[in-house]
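User: I'll paste a sequence; please echo it back and then give the predicted structure.

Assistant: Echoing your sequence first, then the prediction.
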Amino acid sequence: MEKTKPQIQAMEDAYAAAEKAKDVNAVAAYYSQDAISYNRNEEPSSGLAAIKEHIAKDIAKDTTGNVNVYKVVDLFADGDLLVEIGSWAVMNPAGAEVDKGHYMSCFQKHDGKYLCVRDIDRKSVV
């Protein structure tokens, strides 16, 4: 897991950077084609197209200037499956934390690269 943790953290950092840049395709690069994202207080987004639509909607309505920070807390793996427990924090433009929580992502290797196949309680852009 020590070798894999930096790889997953790099994926989380790229996800956050893509959110900040409001780049839907770069955020969606985190997910597999058949992923399901369990959105907070909404129905799950099933499949990459639905996930991209949800990401685009969140990005379009974001006017806060806040950014998300994701941190790998723990990893569990079995074969080609990996589960991440992570924490998120929302930082305002002045750098102060305004919200925080935890999430869980399940990854599967596709062509030697981990992609998220399920996630839950990931903080949206707004």
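DSSP finds three helices and six strands in the chain. The first helix runs from residue 4 to 21.
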